[in-house]
Amino acid sequence: MLSRYDVPMKGAEVAIIGRGVTVGRPLGLLMTRKGIDSTVTLLHSASRNLEEAVKRADIVIGALGVAHFVQPEWIKPGAAVLDVGITRVEGAEGKATLVGDIDPRVAEIAGWLSPNPGGVGPMTRAMLVKNVVDATSK
Q: Could you tell me which residue ranges the Tetrahydrofolate dehydrogenase/cyclohydrolase NAD(P)-binding domain spans (predicted)?
């Protein structure tokens, strides 16, 4: 998604909040690959100086699974923010909704923010279908 929206990654400071084996760790490796050459800080909910690490980042990726964990005051103005986390929360009328790791107010500060829900999830499913089609045509 970052490439698709021309978010500059080469040499960027990246804060990934979430150290899971499904998203956080693999994304950290991907962002440091030759050609992308980002500097990655892999964080978790108990990281010391979490806010400061996020404030330095040109790209912030929330992959923690905690509703609205990342706050607007943590974001550098103009930063690209990718919301991968998803959490089910109960609404006022008892109706469950899905929300991401990024507080929606971050949109006022970020230069780019992926929607959640409706951002990374559909992209993931599309890439899985593409991979299946590619695998069957070999």
A: 1-137
The number of beta carbons lying within 10 Å of the beta carbon of residue 39 is 14
Which fold is adopted by the domain 13-136? Rossmann fold (3.40.50)
Asked if residues 60 and 84 have their Cβ atoms less than 8 Å apart, the reply is: no
C-alpha dist (Å) from residue 102 to 17, 77, 113, 130, 132:
10, 15, 9, 28, 31
User: Domain coordinates of the chain in residue numbers?
Assistant: 13-136
Contact by Cβ (8 Å): 82, 61: yes
Check if the beta carbon of residue 135 is closer than 8 Å to that of residue 17. no
Q: Is the pTM of this model over 0.85?
A: no
pLDDT tens digits, one per residue of 15-57: 999 988 888 898 898 888 888 888 999 999 899 999 999 999 9
Which residue do the tokens 């690209």 mark?
80
Of 14, 13, 110, the C-alpha closest to 61 is 14
